Amino acid sequence: MMKKTLLLSGILALFAATALLPRDSQAVPSFARQIQKPCTACHTIWPNLNQYGRQFKVKAYTDVAPDWQMINKDRLNLLYVFPVSARAIFYPFESETNTVTGNTSTTELNTVDLYLAGRVFDYAGVFGNFEATNPTTSGQSFTFDIPTMKLAFQYPLGGSTSTDEGGTPTQGSTIGLVAFKGLATSADPFNSLGGRDRGLIFDTESVPWILSEGYTLDFWSGANVGVVAHGYFLGNRLYAAVGAERGGNSSDAGEGFNNNSNTDPFDGYFRLAWDQKLPNGAVTFGGAWYTGKQRLLDNSGSELFDSNVNRGYIDASLEQNYGEDHLVEVQALYGHGMESNVYGGGQERKFDGFNIEASYFYDRTIGLVGDYNFINIQGVLPSDAINSVTGNAGTDQNRLNTWVAAINYLPWLNTKVVLQYAQTRTKFAGGEPDETDKIFRVIFDILF
Q: What CATH number should be reported for the domain holding residue 151?
């Protein structure tokens, strides 16, 4: 009772404090300073990107304001002040599971991120994300990681037929190359498959199940390395990408397997999307295909066998402004997956699912966000609860669905205070009772 009282008091104090702060902010993120434009030039509601924001990524972070001070030396064209942004996320939460006695809660700072992004010369740029995370296990200290590191190249082919938010002509066709370490979806500059810059939901509830669930492959793992070649054609409307990547971390595998072998085969990634600008917004639709092999290891690190993995996705999004005060966004993702030889004996598992997120914001200040996330896994056996090859814990879950509702308040476009509630129901093949998880979060998120 005391924890709930303190949590509620903290919520009220946080809302009261932010409500008293001035509406205009001079501490805009450094990327906005680089191009000398407001946050809304690249974002609808941060971190969601609009069409110009997507083009900024595709063009390898090389856009810069004409009056920005540069260093031209040794055939380089560097920014005099390299863009650096920091992000802090704090979300105390209260969690309840019907199959577990007692609730779980925390009031500690969760993550601190440092972002670097900018041009090296006219046709190349870099992006890096350095993250310190506070684990939920009591008594442990912050852990440090580099979730994403990218070296990007781009070359304009000309044929400009469109303009950015400020009326400046943009390149009609662009080709590029990205070498990366990180999420498979973030390596693709268009990044509309539920990537980190395409969602308004926080923490584990934000990840579509069809991306993160699998028997031998976690498509959402952050340990991929590889390269993606991409192009923006027909006036920045048609986007295409092809890439090769592989995992190198135990988190790439699932269901009691390991995968931290540098011999993991490279997988193929293919992407097509149409990005259509509207009078007061944009609409996108497209598809992606991921195919390859996953090299699985036992507990000692010895190679066991390769599984075959395939993922197919169809996605669509809408961003639309109605007048000056009303902003509506909708994103939808459908996915189908198939894995064979999952236990080394030709076994097969299939799954399909979808994720839909919708949001409405008034004056980019007060907003409502709703999300529904679903996956159905076919072929699951009760015996899958224990990995028959390694003896590690697996799972016999065969259906998950999550719904999320959130209220957002943005005193500035780079600062959020959010109340978020999520409920997840899990079904099992072995006949165990359904598991229901309820989690309530208060989020304070600031980028500067």
A: 2.40.160.10
